[in-house]
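# step 3/5: fold
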Amino acid sequence: MDRLKNLEDKITGAIEKVKTLKEEKTALELRIKELEARLSDKDHDIEKLQAEKNAIKSQVEGLLNELDTLEVA
C-alpha cells in the first residue's frame, strides 16, 4: 500500500509540475508577443527617424550647394 501511495504522490507531483510549466509557457508566450510588438514599434520609429535624417541631410546639402553658387558668383 505504501508503494501505491508513493506512486500516487509522484504522479500528483508530476501533474502539478506539468500544470505549472504550462502556465509559465503561456505567460512567456504572451510576454514574447508583447516584446515583439514593442520591437516592431521601435523598428517603425527607427525607419521614421532615418527618413527624417535623410530629408534633413538632403536639405542641408541643398543649402550648401546654394552657398557654393553664391561664393562662385
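# step 4/5: annotate
The chain has a mean pLDDT of 95.
# step 5/5: archive (pending)
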